[in-house]
Design a protein that fits this description.
Strands 1, 2, 3, 4, 5, 6, 7, 8, 9 and 10 form a ten-stranded mixed sheet that branches. 33% of the residues are buried. The protein is built from seven helices and 16 strands. The chain has two domains: 131 residues, Roll (Nuclear Transport Factor 2, Chain: A), CATH 3.10.450; 162 residues, L,D-transpeptidase catalytic domain-like (Beta Barrel). Helix 1 packs across helix 4. It is an alpha+beta fold.
Length: 333
């Protein structure tokens, strides 16, 4: 009971501190402008929001709390032949959720109907697999010479862009660095508050891990949590052995970002774990959060021991020049 109270107080204090930082950001005008030029590079996360109702894809930078995102463009799209969220292979529906882009596929090795490039999404992700969804091969791609996004619902579940758009968008998207949110136009309730709170939750989770506070650490996980180490009981027993294995443990999070969907949320960050002189692990960690009652809990987590490659983002004026060049060189289909 005492550990729970202490952990709760820490979380509330951390949450309040983040709210204070955010409030200072608001008062100083950090969120006020959508037209300021971007630096040539930034922290390198992009957020592409697919609105299946409006058939638009809005590209923004994905910034940490306290820093304004910048809108880079809005693009017309086409989606799956059938409406609704994808649940099974062959239903011709576009999945709804939070996804990461994978490596770009050049159009030279694709059928012409996919246009000049394709960027696969990681569907089915950890939450989709938890929900027993099936299917694969969900891409962002072009339309080729014989189709147009104006036809609206033309794919078997992919998201289709005009060729001139996917051609240069595909060059920006980087695995682990581009988050794609697909929804039906309904925004999650209290999205900003959830982002603040989940930022605090992720930092508190890392703190409990580093302090080897197994009781507090365990409370972050949903009872339905599953992992390659087994179900929740087996996973927590594995973690307890790890906690007891090292004399010193260090956990650090960098470039933390939180994205909220109406169904679940993610926190993504660079994770660095060091245990004595035995293990030194760096990579990308994604925590998938779902609400259990009134509390956000970790339903799944995924770690990839990969180097993070930041995305080079042009200035707003640079983007406009690219768009203008694309319009002149390649007419829409």
């Amino acid at each position: 009971m005492k550990l729970f109270f202490v952990g709760w107080v820490r979380s509330v204090r951390l949450y309040s501190f983040i709210l204070l930082i955010a409030a200072l950001g608001f008062s100083s005008g950090a969120f006020s402008s959508q037209t300021q030029p971007l630096a040539k590079t930034n922290n390198g996360f992009l957020l592409l929001r697919i609105n299946k109702e409006k058939l638009t894809a809005t590209l923004n930078t994905l910034e940490p709390l306290g820093t304004a995102s910048r809108r880079l463009g809005v693009f017309p799209i086409a989606t799956g032949k059938n409406l609704g969220d994808k649940t099974r292979q062959g239903d011709n529906k576009t999945p709804e959720g939070i996804y990461f882009t994978k490596a770009r596929i050049d159009g030279s090795i694709l059928e012409s109907k996919y246009g000049p490039a394709a960027v696969p999404l990681d569907y089915p992700n950890a939450i989709d697999q938890k929900d027993l969804k099936t299917g694969s091969g969900i891409w962002l791609h072009g339309t080729g010479p014989d189709r147009a996004v104006a036809d609206k619902n033309i794919t078997r579940g992919c998201v289709a862009f005009e060729d001139k758009h996917i051609e240069f968008l595909g060059d920006w998207f980087r695995p682990e660095s581009t988050v794609v949110v697909v929804d039906s136009g309904v925004m999650p309730k209290k999205e900003k508050q959830s982002r603040f709170y989940l930022t605090a939750r992720a930092l508190s989770w890392a703190s409990a891990w580093e302090r080897r506070d197994h009781a507090e650490y365990s409370r972050f996980y949903a009872s339905s949590f599953n992992h390659e180490k087994g179900q929740l009981k087996q996973f927590l027993a594995h973690k307890k052995r790890i906690f007891n294995l090292y004399k010193e443990m260090h956990v650090s999070l960098k470039r933390l970002r939180v994205v909220v969907h109406k169904k679940y949320a993610i926190s993504v960050f660079e994770q660095h774990f060091k245990g004595d002189d035995v293990i030194d692990s760096k990579g990308i960690k994604v925590l998938y959060w779902q609400k259990v009652g009134s509390e956000w809990s970790i339903a799944r987590e995924v770690f990839r021991e990969v180097d993070w490659v930041p995305t080079s983002i042009p200035s707003v004026s640079g983007l406009m020049a690219l768009m203008s060049k694309a319009e002149k060189e390649k007419p829409g289909h």
